[in-house]
């Protein structure tokens, strides 16, 4: 029988191997037959669950899985006359890679190619992230639904449509050519960036899901740094950003799921190891002349991880100034204004903030609430309430509520005098 | 939304070297417009030294147009509902401290 420790390892093993085997099989069958690849992998896991429950874990579970998957694929090809007569004829012989195996090289190449296939600009970014979570990260539909605070049916439909786009794309899962990489790398980086943010700023209450989204985004970005064509400065900048942000994941998580804001974090909980890695990739990122938005955001995250410098907020404001000139987003506008207030004081910060006029954004009212805290507590409480009403994120609601309760507390303390 | 070109002019531009603080102030001003999503084009700064004016009959002179004392130092394009709003943006620019001025023109 498998020990309980082994049992605990199985989901993790399945998740990782699911993505690898699906990638290699998609390379073999073509993306248009992604469902076949997924079915074969699922059958392999089913068999593993049955056999391992009886006999315990094999000595090399991964090799065991690959052997079974290979045999199942062979059986499938033999018995599936439709495939032989219809599909195979459509695929020209030279387009089919003659021999295949689950060796390291084929896994690495296939995974990289799958990343590029999944980050298809024909799909919405939300759909791309769902696909990435399922195909590249091996998440179940329940887990994806939890991460997005959506219903399972919604996620299922979204994945179904997104896979249709993939099937029609005619994207070849094979060793990537330079032209494919240069034309799609930006889309890939953007999806990985959003995947990371989905974890870091997750609407989900589950710390576990949030952490896994972040670490999966890092794992996939690391794959990009292992290939000479994709290991470019902006990839390193994105990875540096992810490392810096992740270094604060522990300090950021409150006991009841709320987010602990930067200023109140216990800095001894920051991971020095991840900060060092961030520094390493940031240095790599500066080997060229290009300054991407990832460079600027990594620079900001760098200063946040370096709390000692007295001009820190000046540096951060300058980086935000550059960032907002490259690409407008409400979040960047709000963060820039926060940095502005840190440098020039809350009063000027309020003037700058009110000009943004982002009346649909919870962040807008949260920022104003923060800026009014010292001078107009009543107004700040009203603003926080508006922010709470607007946000759908559970951790954000909790964080805002605790800021508001603090103000209420202060007020009642003051009234006693 | 309409687009308005803001044309920056300085008197004697070659003598004016902005301090780090002035550069920071200008950058804050520009980013402040971008933060309201009202910057259509962050424009460019124009060289006052490497400049020539080409006139009819292949006459080329050094520098910007000689008869006027002001030099165009740069431009940006903002997108606002009205010219008044664009003028309000212009008022916040630190160029006036250097004796410069800003012309606001609707882009047609």
UniProtKB/TrEMBL annotation, chain A:
One function term, GO molecular function aspect: DNA-binding transcription factor activity
UniProt domain RNA polymerase sigma-70 region: residue ranges: 26-81
Pfam families: DUF6596, Sigma70_r2
GO biological process: DNA-templated transcription initiation
InterPro entries for this protein: DUF6596 (IPR046531), RNA_pol_sigma70_r2 (IPR007627), RNA_pol_sigma_r2 (IPR013325), RNA_pol_sigma_r3/r4-like (IPR013324)
Residue ranges of every copy of the DUF6596 domain listed in the record: 184-285
Name by which UniProt lists this protein: RNA polymerase sigma-70 factor, ECF subfamily
Organism: Pedobacter caeni
UniProtKB/TrEMBL annotation, chain B:
Lineage: Bacteria, Pseudomonadati, Bacteroidota, Sphingobacteriia, Sphingobacteriales
Organism (species): Pedobacter caeni
Family that this chain belongs to: Belongs to the YciI family.
Protein name: Uncharacterized conserved protein
Gene3D superfamilies in the record: Dimeric alpha+beta barrel
One Pfam short name: YCII
Domain of life of the native organism: Bacteria
The YCII-related domain, residue ranges: 17-107
SUPFAM superfamilies linked: Dimeric alpha+beta barrel
